[in-house]
Amino acid sequence: MASAPTTSSLSLAVRRAASVAPAAAPLRRGGLAAGCQPARSLAFAAADQRLAAHVASRCRAASSSRGIRAVATMAKKSVGDLTAADLEGKRVFVRADLNVPLDDSQNITDDTRIRAAIPTIKYLISNGAKVILSSHLGRPKGVTPKFSLAPLVPRLSELLGIEVIKADDVVGPEVEKLVSTLPNGSVLLLENVRFYKEEEKNDPEFAKKLASLADLYVNDAFGTAHRAHASTEGVTKFLKPSVAGFLLQKELDYLVGAVSSPARPFAAIVGGSKVSSKIGVIESLLEKCDILLLGGGMIFTFYKAQGLSVGASLVEEDKLELATSLLAKAKEKGVSLLLPSDVIIADKFAPDANSKVVPASAIPDGWMGLDIGPDSVASFSSTLETTKTVIWNGPMGVFEFDKFAVGTEAIAKKLADLSGKGVTTIIGGGDSVAAVEKVGVADVMSHISTGGGASLELLEGKELPGVVALDEAVTVKSVTV
Ligand SMILES: Nc1ncnc2c1ncn2[C@@H]1O[C@H](COP(=O)(O)OP(=O)(O)O)[C@@H](O)[C@H]1O
Ligand SMILES: O=C(OP(=O)(O)O)[C@H](O)COP(=O)(O)O
Q1: How many Å apart are CA 306 and CA 415, to the nearest integer?
Q2: Is 274 part of the annotated catalytic residue set?
Q3: Residue 430 annotated among the catalytic residues of the structure
Q4: DSSP output for 139-150
Q5: How is 431-447 classified by DSSP, letter by letter?
Q6: What is the ipTM of this complex?
Q7: Closest residue by Cα to residue 16 from 43, 68, 55, 47
Q8: Any residues with Cβ below 6 Å from ligand 1, and which?
Q9: What residues pair up with 427 in beta bridges, in sequence order?
Q10: Catalytic status, residue 280
Q11: Which range has the worst mean pLDDT, 311-315, 346-350, 432-436?
């Protein structure tokens, strides 16, 4: 697997690459100036931005001639910073995102989010903590049995290797009683936290009640970190320490870390239905990537902006100027922006539509582009061959219809192939994850995000309230480049 930078705690606001020297050299502890130490070995207790900058500048001086890049990071405290001495016998409120799909018989149809939450919970129970596990499921309006977390208990228990206890409520005397009898190393799953309307309102009294159940707080709910809710944000005001779980840490390491200081060439593939939903992502990625490949429904707005006929394809008339300015911005930034050279068109928006391949410049009236064509797949693939880091957000076509899933699946397979060759491949949540899973290549990617909305916000450069609220720690890491 490729060498994405890893940190011992979370990257957030400040990342200062002190040097990017071309030659690779092994890390040599003795060779660094005082205050600069290899990754994972140095954690500054004080969370001070100036300290981070100061240390970065010292490391810059020390490492520029050795092919070592030192990155001082405003970081969040991690659950990994807590030892058995901190955790033994402690009640730990863990907010996870266990919002998994259930079928009509309440069977879990995709347990990815449950599996992703396991490392943090296992770490806590193996260190003698009492885990009070909280999540939402769906968007219930009040108490709604079909949104109960009960169907998750067997799978959680199986994956953890212990019997998970389930509470019928989120707060209140019954829950308090259960918490008071919890043995060390056990897990109590609270009921769906959104059964209380106070959760989404981030009601301080409700947050205080949640906090009163525990001694410390771990947020591992990356998929919900863009929500300022009582269990993701409010609760941190009443529980110290409030730290990040391993999943949250990994998501930020890839979606912020690997994207901010990527191994280059760095390519971004952006697809999906509309330019309007991806403006922020495209603008942000144009600042960072070397190559930008565009696919999906949004390409027709770009074609039209360039004066091409797009038939009945999806076009956002009010975004034509924006498309033109994004093309200009790419040029100005020296980013090679590639639009598909051919497309698969359909005579109607349906799985059984008649279809044919045409050059992008030859879409007849009445036909709509629903996928990228074979020449585009070939040119995108050969371009991707040159890269060291790739991030993908949004499908290349209407992949829900088999006939128009070819381009998306080909890109998924190409990324799997590149991943096997050491390229860092990051799948940024949402439909692209579904595509990668459909093709059966999810396991080989460097990172697959568990959050659609959250990953989009991160890629747009926004801060996530559930992350901002956590305790800070400054770390310095060094990586060879
Ligand atoms: N050429 C196209 N025309 C219309 N819709 C498209 C086209 N290509 C992709 N889409 C649709 O875009 C949707 C995904 O868009 P979006 O939500 O922006 O992506 P993501 O969920 O990956 O962030 C899919 O439902 C897909 O069918
Ligand atoms: O599934 C989720 O988000 P996602 O669909 O954007 O990945 C999260 O659990 C957040 O759920 P919400 O969008 O109801 O707050």
Answers
A1: 29
A2: yes
A3: yes
A4: --SS--GGG-SG
A5: HHHHHHHHHT-GGGSSE
A6: 0.95
A7: 55
A8: 272-273, 277, 296-297, 314, 369-370, 393-395, 397-398, 400, 430-432
A9: 392, 448
A10: no
A11: 432-436
